[in-house]
Amino acid sequence: MLSAMDTVVTLERRDDGIAIITLCNGKVNALSRAVTGQLAAIADELRNDPPKVVIVTGGDRIFAAGADISEFGGPEEAREVTIAIHTALDAIAALPRFVIAEVAGYALGGGCELAMACDYRVASTKAVFGQPEILLGIIPGGGGTQRLRELVGISRAKELCLTGRQVAADEALRIGLADEVVDHEALRERILELAGQIARGATVAQALTKQAIDEGADLSLTDGLRREQDLFVEVFTSEDSQIGVRSFLEHGPGKAEFTGN
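Given the sequence above, the corresponding structure tokens read:
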């Protein structure tokens, strides 16, 4: 039994602007109520004081293996579980920064849903993804049916959710569930390389780009294009836009040193 003081999710803020969220809830990193509560609290902290980029990671063998089944019961318990998971994962997805999932091992059920709530998934060659809830006689309750559909398409999402089949890293990359696959031993190096590249970029423009893409997904093309126009105008209020344009005119592309403002 976890006490109120037990830490099952940690947050590390690095000097380079990279924030690392790590799940550390025992061997399987089950998304218990304690985990989702702490994850939501960390997301709230990062929203109020954003870093430059966020990494979400878990164990070396198991990224996260789903909800804590011991907390399941009847419909009322199910409502509490699904609300807690959705609250935490939606908060991660809504962060105004690029969020990278570092998937070293099994990402099943809620673990797969957490990875999909991130903007980008880098997996090791040992990673395995899946939504196996159907094998318990239930359905995904943390966004799996919806985010999986958006990533892999309707037919493939139905096949994976209805069979509970697990997907190895190479297939995950092929169907769009993973965005990169690297050797297991090189995973952290690649993650920090990518995060560092993002952290050195124009933070305001990155946030507005993510906002335009995410909001546009729920709009018609016409309305999405209009939203892009508004955000294009807004980005020119940033210091980085002036730095970037001036640097391009004076030195050519790719040489600007942004402040993040």
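The radius of gyration is 19 Å. Try to locate this feature in the token string yourself.
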